[in-house]
Each structure stands twice: as structure tokens, then as C-alpha cells.
């Protein structure tokens, strides 16, 4: 087995996300939080490297030898997690420096987010890190995750077995993005990396964007920020990275009150929202408006090809939703398409007067007992139209499971032939059926959104990014 510490890492953050040997320092007692939870989660998720518990009060735990100090570990260590009282952290970091450790996740809180004394303590650990060449994530953080390598050193119980690997990287200044706080186990899409910056005393969003720039697992980056430390570097790195993969950003502190709350949460420096918005526009970064969007909108980039333009096709079981979709499309730069004459004739041959800008399946569904048989023909006709760049598709589940397998079969066929961007919204009278169909479609790689507004916004962002990318390539 190749151990990370035996090779030259590609990036300083490789020690966080691709460690071969992990030290867990501090709290090891039973409970839903602490080092023992970290060790159990690593083992359960298939981490193949070495784990070294460190605590002078223990001899052995879970069949692993426990060492009184990190200096007593008989091998090089790539990454340590520090879960102790805040005053013990500086001494532990110095020992890590003497040991040759190059990456530390400081889970402990009580630093700049608390008071002036905590801020001084945070400054001290930053100085220690620089002195010994240790990159520090945190403090006041729940850490990182790299599910493709089983690296889930999460200090909280997850509540589910495994984190599904995928293409979405989620990063932010909050533990709310971490595995214990969000139902990743129930999602139809997977994640490439998770990173909670905590107080962001050292490792920040610029470091992470640079690391993810070359990460082959990551297709899209979603960031939650409370502030930025170096505006010039942020713009330069963001502009460069977005040429390779989209970056979606949610920033708190848009109001004066929110900016004050930001400072008390992680000690972040507030940035005027108008300035930040201008930076994002110059760098080609895509701004989000709500916390839910941080988790929902990236999947359009992870699962689907980019649209070649902004011409939107709409297929729906309800005309009212189609009209609302047109309003939303206009907000996000999408233009309801005008179908070619050939497509109009083909649709009208399937069912009279079907070939309209909003393809309403309500009438044929009411008139035809086997309307499901014409459904795939309609979708194929729309998707092969040269005037359609992306499709908003609305599905009605019905009151029973009768059509669920049919919908999944139709989408399996689409997956084989379709090269266009598809966003789906599922509605119906039973939440259980909506959830079942949603999960099935996303397992096939077709993102489903909680409401029509999010579906249209996702397509709008994908179209906007596609335009930016083509412009950069000229």
C-alpha cells in the first residue's frame, strides 16, 4: 500500500483529503461526538490507511493502540484531528510540528468566534503553524470529507452508514454542510469533497478552489462564505478555476445586521455585499440566494451536459405551471423556444395541437387511457429539435405507483440518446411517490428539483455558465 506521506503531495491540501496516516488527538470517550466517533466512521467508510489515537489516559481502543503523545506514534502522520480544550491546542500543534505533521484539523472551539482572548489564542496557533509548516483547518470546525477514499474524519455521528461519492464539492464556514447535519445518505447525487472552514485562520476558500481545480472527482464547486480575507486573490483564483468548473457561491452578511452576526459566528471580516457582487461578476462566479440552493442547484452541473444556448423547451402536465415557468425563465436569461416546423408536425401527429411553445400533456392525459405510450415519443421529439438547448420537464406521479416504473424506463431510454440539459420537477398527491420517483430519476443522472422555480434557475445558471465558458475559450 502506498502511504501519502511517502510521496510528494500535489497540493498542500492533499494531506487533508488524501492522507495515508491519521492521528486523532483528544476526546475518546463514548458519545455522539469526539475522537471515538471519528475512528468508527473512518473504519465504517473503508479508510484503508493507518489510524493513530492519541490520549494519555487510554492504552487501547477499538483494537488500536493509543499513544500518550503524537510524538510517540512510530510512523509519519499526514493529518491530525485535535479535539481538546482550546488552551491545549498550541502545545499539541508544537508537538505535531516536531513530529513533521503537515496538516491539522482543529475541531476545538473557543477562539476568535468567542472573545478577544480567544482571538489571541487563534493568532498564536496560526504563528505556530507557519513556524512548523503546518496547514491548519479551523479552528471551530467539523472538518472535511472525501468519500471516494473513505476519508470521513467527522467528529459527530452521521446517522447513516456511508456518504455517496459524486461530483459536487460543498465547502463553507459552517458545520451545517457537514455529513452529520445534512441527509447526504438520502440524496440521489453524491459529493466529491466537503470542507468546513470554521474560523478560517489558515486554510481558506482560495486554497480550496486551487486544490479542487485539479481534482478529477469534482465537477462543480459550491461555497458558503461569511467573508473573504484577500479580495484580490479571491478574484484571481476564482476567475481561473471557473474556466474549468463552475463555482456557485452563497454569501451571508448581505445586510448590516447579517454582517454583525457573521462576525460573532466565525470572527469573519464583513465585506460589503455590493463589492462582493461586483467581484463575483468580474470573476464569472455564480451567486446563490438561499441555503437550500447551495445543496440543490449544483447537481445540474454534476449530472447534465451544459446547454449550448438559452432556448428552453417546456413539457408539462399542467398549463399553469408552464406559464409560471416562462415567467421564471425570463428572470434567468432563458428564452422559451420556437419549435421547428418539423417538430410541430411530428407532435401534432401524435396528438392534435400539441406542437405549441408550452407542450401541455393535460389534454391527452385526460383523453387517452394509454397516454403513457405517447409520452416517450413527445420527449424524444422535443429533445432532438435543433431549437431546444435545454428542457424543463414536469411529471405527475398519479395517486398510485402505476406509472413510476414507466417513467423510470422512459428516462433510462433518454439517457442513452439525449445530449441536452434536462431539469425535472415531480408533483403529485403523495409525498412518498414523489420521493421514490425523485430518487430513481437522480440515480439515473437526471436532477429533480423541489419546485419549478429551482428547476428553472438551475437551467438558467447552467446556460449562463455555458456562455461564460464559450466566451473564455474564444
Ends apart, CA distance between termini? 44 Å
**If you consult CATH, what is the topology of the largest domain?**
Rossmann fold
Strand content: 15-25%
- Please mark out the parts with pLDDT under 50 across 5 or more consecutive residues, or reply none: 1-9
Instruction: Quickly count the domains.
Output: 2
Query: What's the CATH C level of the largest domain?
Result: Alpha Beta
Helix content: 25-40%
**Using DSSP, what is the number of strands?**
19
For the largest beta sheet, what order do the strands appear in spatially? 8-10-9-11-12-13
CATH H-level superfamily of the largest domain = Succinyl-CoA synthetase domains
- How many DSSP helices? 17
Mean pLDDT metric: 92
Computed structural class: alpha/beta
Account of the 3D structure:
- This protein folds into 2 domains: 4-299, Succinyl-CoA synthetase domains (Rossmann fold, 3-Layer(aba) Sandwich), CATH 3.40.50; 305-473, Succinyl-CoA synthetase domains (Rossmann fold, 3-Layer(aba) Sandwich), CATH 3.40.50.
- It is built from 17 helices and 19 strands.
- The protein has helices at 14-17, 35-44, 89-99, 116-132, 205-213, 231-241, 256-266, 273-283, 291-296, 299-303, 319-331, 341-350, 362-367, 375-383, 404-417, 431-443, 452-473, and strands at residues 21-26, 50-54, 60-61, 64-65, 79-83, 103-106, 135-137, 144-145, 165-172, 191-196, 220-225, 247-251, 286-287, 311-316, 335-336, 358-360, 390-396, 421-427, 448-449.
- Strand 5 (79-83), helix 3 (89-99) and strand 6 (103-106) form a beta-alpha-beta unit.
- Helix 11 (319-331) packs parallel to helix 17 (452-473).
- The model is unreliable at 1-9 (pLDDT under 50).
Amino acid at each position: 500500500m502506498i502511504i501519502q506521506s511517502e510521496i510528494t503531495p500535489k497540493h498542500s491540501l492533499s494531506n487533508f483529503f488524501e492522507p495515508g496516516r491519521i492521528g486523532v488527538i483528544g476526546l475518546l470517550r463514548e458519545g455522539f461526538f469526539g475522537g471515538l466517533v471519528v475512528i468508527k466512521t473512518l473504519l465504517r467508510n473503508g479508510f484503508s490507511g493507518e489510524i493513530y489515537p492519541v490520549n494519555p489516559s487510554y492504552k487501547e481502543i477499538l483494537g488500536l493502540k493509543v499513544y500518550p503523545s503524537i510524538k510517540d506514534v512510530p510512523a509519519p502522520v499526514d493529518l491530525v484531528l485535535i479535539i481538546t480544550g482550546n488552551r491545549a491546542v498550541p502545545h499539541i500543534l508544537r508537538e505535531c510540528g516536531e513530529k513533521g505533521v503537515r496538516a491539522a484539523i482543529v475541531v476545538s472551539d473557543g477562539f476568535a468566534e468567542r472573545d478577544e482572548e480567544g482571538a489571541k489564542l487563534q493568532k498564536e496557533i496560526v504563528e505556530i503553524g507557519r513556524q512548523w509548516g503546518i496547514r491548519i483547518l479551523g479552528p471551530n470546525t467539523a472538518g472535511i470529507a472525501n468519500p471516494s477514499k473513505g476519508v470521513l474524519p467527522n467528529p459527530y455521528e452521521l446517522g447513516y452508514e456511508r456518504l455517496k461519492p459524486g461530483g459536487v464539492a460543498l465547502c463553507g464556514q459552517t458545520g451545517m454542510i457537514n455529513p452529520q447535519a445534512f441527509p447526504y445518505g438520502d440524496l440521489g447525487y453524491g459529493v466529491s469533497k466537503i470542507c468546513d472552514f470554521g474560523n478560517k485562520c489558515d486554510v481558506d476558500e482560495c486554497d480550496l478552489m486551487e486544490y479542487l481545480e485539479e481534482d478529477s472527482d469534482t465537477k462543480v464547486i459550491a461555497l458558503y462564505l461569511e467573508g473573504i480575507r484577500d479580495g484580490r486573490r479571491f478574484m484571481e483564483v476564482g476567475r481561473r478555476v471557473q474556466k474549468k468548473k463552475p463555482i456557485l457561491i452563497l454569501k451571508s452578511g448581505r445586510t448590516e445586521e447579517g454582517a454583525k452576526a457573521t462576525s460573532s459566528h466565525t470572527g469573519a471580516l464583513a465585506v460589503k455585499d455590493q463589492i462582493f457582487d461586483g467581484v463575483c461578476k468580474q470573476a464569472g462566479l455564480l451567486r446563490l440566494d438561499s441555503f437550500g440552493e447551495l445543496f440543490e442547484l449544483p447537481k445540474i452541473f454534476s449530472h447534465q451536459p451544459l446547454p449550448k444556448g438559452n432556448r428552453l423547451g417546456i413539457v408539462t402536465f399542467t398549463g399553469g405551471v408552464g406559464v409560471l415557468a416562462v415567467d421564471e425563465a425570463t428572470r434567468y436569461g432563458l428564452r422559451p423556444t420556437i419549435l421547428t416546423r418539423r417538430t410541430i408536425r411530428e407532435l401534432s401527429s401524435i396528438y392534435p395541437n400539441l406542437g405549441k411553445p408550452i407542450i401541455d400533456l393535460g389534454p391527452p392525459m385526460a383523453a387517452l387511457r394509454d397516454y403513457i405510450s405517447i409520452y416517450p415519443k413527445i420527449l424524444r421529439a422535443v429533445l432532438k429539435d435543433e431549437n431546444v438547448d435545454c428542457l424543463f420537464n414536469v411529471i405527475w406521479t398519479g395517486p398510485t405507483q402505476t406509472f413510476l416504473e414507466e417513467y423510470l424506463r422512459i428516462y433510462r431510454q433518454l439517457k442513452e440518446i439525449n445530449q441536452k440539459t434536462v431539469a425535472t420537477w415531480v408533483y403529485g398527491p403523495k409525498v412518498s411517490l414523489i420521493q421514490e420517483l425523485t430518487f430513481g430519476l437522480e440515480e439515473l443522472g437526471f436532477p429533480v428539483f423541489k419546485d419549478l422555480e429551482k428547476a428553472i434557475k438551475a437551467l438558467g445558471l447552467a446556460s449562463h455558465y455555458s456562455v461564460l465558458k464559450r466566451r473564455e475559450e474564444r
